[in-house]
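Good morning C.,

I know you're traveling, so I'll keep this short. The sequence:
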Amino acid sequence: MNSGKISFIFIAILLLVIVADAQFYDVSVEISIDRMPEKERMDLKTLEQMIPYYFESYDWFENTYGLEIPLKISMFPEAVNSSGFERVFSSQFLISNETADQRFFEKGFKFVYNSNDPLMHSEMTHSLASAFDFYAYMFIAGELDTYDPLGGNNIYDKARDIATRGQVSERSSGWKSRLQDLDEIQRLRDYRLVKYYYWLTIDSIDRENPKAARETIDTMLMHLKRMFDINARERYTHIFLDVHARDIAEIIRGFGTPAQLEIIITLDPDNEAIYKELGVSK
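The tokens, ready to paste straight into the viewer:
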């Protein structure tokens, strides 16, 4: 067998290994270039093509659960300023998972990018790559919270390390608010436990254990009540409920009780119509 064919096979196997162990996959990126000058439009389109690989090809953590997290990233650059050899873009930035029950938005996202700059992982703070690293760990930690109670703590610590370094770097823009978001989520123990018991309920249903499902619905509602006793308009919890209200209603209809239905309606009146429509046995 010739060396060219061997090289081709090796590369193919390597790509299969990377894809098989991908912790992020189907990373969709859209950078709106309407407000940019012509040169910046071309460069930003190059960046748009680079970002999925940045997320999908990196070994972010020891993926014992086999997590595969799809991401959607939207960027809306509004201005660009040149300073020496650097171009600083000002943009809106939105990143979410597939269901959008985890999502983060930055109105004033500033980053440095030149067309010949590699997008690479580094311990050094970079206005763009480090922000991607921070949010990658935020999504991984949020996902791990659904596998174990507060299971994302160690990964949230990785995000904190990045944000802390960012705050004291030359590129400190945005890091204070990111660290505040991280602090807020880690303080919201009951929100995080609502997520865990929601998915544990689904796991009990998949294992055909309706008794366990009723019990975990009760525990989920208990943590939801605790959360809203502290702050009835807590934003992350409401995002989660808005995305999953229909599924919660169907779960309670199939495996819960009328009392549980009344509790969720009381706690989440924003989705009362959904709960009443889908949560009553036909």
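Safe travels,
E.
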